[in-house]
Amino acid sequence: MSPVLKTLTETISTDTIYAQCTIMAFIHLAFHDYGLDAAMVSQSISLNAIFFASVCLASRLSTNYHAFAFLIFSTDLFVLISLMYKSSRRRTKLFTTIMFTIITLIIIELTFGLVGFFASIIFVLFINLICPYIFLRMQILKDNIYGPWDEAIIDRNALKFSSKNFQKKIIINGFNKHHNKNGEHSNKSSEPSSPLSPSNIFSNIFKTN
What we know:
By secondary structure, the protein is mostly helical. It is about 75% helix and about 0% strand. Among the domains are: about 1-90, no CATH class; about 90-140, no CATH class. It has helices at about 1-5, 15-30, 45-60, 65-90, 95-135, 155-185, 200-209. Helix 2 (about 15-30) packs antiparallel against helix 3, helix 3 (about 45-60) runs antiparallel to helix 4 (about 65-90) and helix 4 (about 65-90) crosses helix 5 (about 95-135). The termini are far apart. It is found in: Membrane.
């Protein structure tokens, strides 16, 4: 397959290949399984994306041997080491973390020298120790600012209190209206009333009872 893969993208420009590989690498990092239960985690998408990038990069190498070696290295790095890491993490998490931390620091030291080695150590300590400490210390300065941009919060006790007051107002208003009507009727008692008026009808009913 190496000769086929080597000539797979001859008609595509190198800049396009590099852009595709960069996008696929970001997709691999975004969908990779880091041990968290998330909806976007997909091992198949992550693995296919990084292998697509590996094939595209292998097609830009000079010989079939280089393309074959590059694909074997990609398989070891993204498949075999990943499986080994998962199996070892289930057994001894602390040992696995220490081992991969040491390997990462050695790779950084070999790549960037002592300056990059110590800079990476300081950066990791700052992220894992100093930043959480600053976060905890800043919690006492936290202040919630409320305004018209906030969502409305329904207070059930206030609703009950307002509903009771509303009922009281209805009762009081009804009583006042009834009292005013009685006052009007008493003022109009001197006037002759018709036999079909409500007061005469009710008085006749009570008399018959």
